[in-house]
Amino acid sequence: MKLLQNVINHKINTINREELLKYATQYNISLTSKQADAIVERVKGKNINIFDAGSRSKLVKELAKSIGPAKAKEINQLFMQLIR
Q1: What is the pTM of this model?
Q2: What is the spatial distance between Cα 23 and Cα 36, in angstroms, rounded to a whole number?
Q3: Is the separation of the CB atoms in 17 and 33 below 8 Å?
Q4: Is the distance from CB of 61 to CB of 75 less than 8 angstroms?
Q5: Which is it for the CA torsion 20, 26, 31, 33, positive or negative?
Q6: For residue range 15-28, what is the model confidence (pLDDT) as tens digits?
Q7: Could you say which DSSP state residue 32 is in?
Q8: Which helix (H) or strand (E) holds 1?
């Protein structure tokens, strides 16, 4: 299980705009390129652990400031899908 967590966290921490937009479409989340760029800027290279509720919550709060609370909530739902 730890290996799978590491793979998912690595993917989150190295994601680019195109990949994020692809996943958003796959999970029925509408994102603009500008929103995707803001998300990538917040996560890329930051070594975020989305399996840790505190780290995930902090990230979602940061995202809410740049992309809005409603969209940040949708991104959190995407994270929740990935960790299940």
Answers
A1: 0.86
A2: 11
A3: yes
A4: no
A5: positive
A6: 999 999 998 999 89
A7: -
A8: none
